[in-house]
Design goal:
CATH class of the largest domain: Alpha Beta
Distance between the termini: 37 Å
Number of domains: 3
Number of strands: 14
Radius of gyration: 23 Å
Helix content: 25-40%
Number of helices: 16
CATH architecture of the largest domain: 3-Layer(aba) Sandwich
Order of helices and strands: HHHEHEHEEHEHHHHHEHHEEEEEHHHEEE
Shape: globular
Amino acid sequence: MAKSPIHNSVVAEQYEKWSYPLPIMDLNGPQTRAGRDGSDPESNSYTFWPNQDYRDDLDILIAGCGSNAAARYALNHPKARVVGIDLSFSSLAHEAYLKDKHRLDNLTLHHARLEEVSALGEDFDFIEVSGVLHHLPDPTAGLKALGSVLRPHGTIAVMVYGQYGRTGVYMLQEMFRLMGLRQSDDDVAAVRQTIATLPKRHIIHDYVSRASDVKYDAGLVDTFLNRQDRAYSVAGCLDLTRQAGLNFMGWWDNILYYPEGQLPKNDPIYQKINGLSDESIWQFMELYNGTLGQHCFCVCDPGRPEDSYKIDFSGNSFMDYVPVLRCREVAPVTSAPENCVTVQRVPWPAYTLNPATSSLFKQIDGTKSIRACFEGAGLPNATDSETICRAAFRDLWRLSYIFLRIPSQTATYDVGRVHRQIAT
């Protein structure tokens, strides 16, 4: 583990005492091996690189790796080269323990400020920065620094706190400041006691029921006693990206930001908002949902061609996209109409597709284009293929039930100073 001089901060002090997240002693358990699905460059590859097949030899940076994340990536991606940086020596010490325990020769650890990442003298195909930017004194500078070490066709997977879903958290943070609580063991005990005495109608109870962090002391400190913490709305995420000089690619999970998963199409509200711009739809759905405690999205270098990552249904080129399943067919919860398929992607509820979409869904095999799926479906009395397919496949994509792969003759990867031409 390389060490570098570093300025101390309230955040560094916190994570030295309260190692976060809860240190995992063995990465071989099924839950720890799975990691975070949305930010995994393999399982979510077509979100980050929809025009290219997954590469297993990526150079990966985990920016603010905490106690476990860099080691988990190195274990799950043995052919990748993984670098983890963090402010906390205690967190890095546990990462080093996991590195030794699992013999992770593909993992390198550095004690470093995220804002000074360029001092490593390396660049990366993929960067994860989850739960970190919102604790920096200047998140924009932090994201800009990460952009400076991102390769031209690379992707940064970002998670920041959601403003509206954490309303109760910020109420309690202010309440605990009024109580004079800091981060001692007694203060953590006072947090637990206070939450237990709050009225049942208090807004925080819904958040606590959904948040795994509050089940252990370091998580309580990080949630309620953190002294450097901010949150973002959808508009704030877009502004953060622009101010850092990067391009917003999209969300890890569209289902949270489009109405298809939360409103029936015959609902007047759906009719009103579906004609809005994507950015306005995202903002509306955040407010409609009201419980998004975090926002997970991906960004890229502004020089990366937009047609290498943007999914566009406005013209007719979408007919050449290749749908790839992201869900599985399940038995219907209740009696479904004949010839209708029910699908599910955990943790979201099962969803029954209409007959036309069901016929198209059955054609998806990861190789056929949307056009070929339509031809194979043999829909009766179907003449307007583009209208039918736009409605069906846009819904499936917005519901996060499929990826859409953008066809490309060749894809150029900029790996350091070496360019590789890779047929797709």
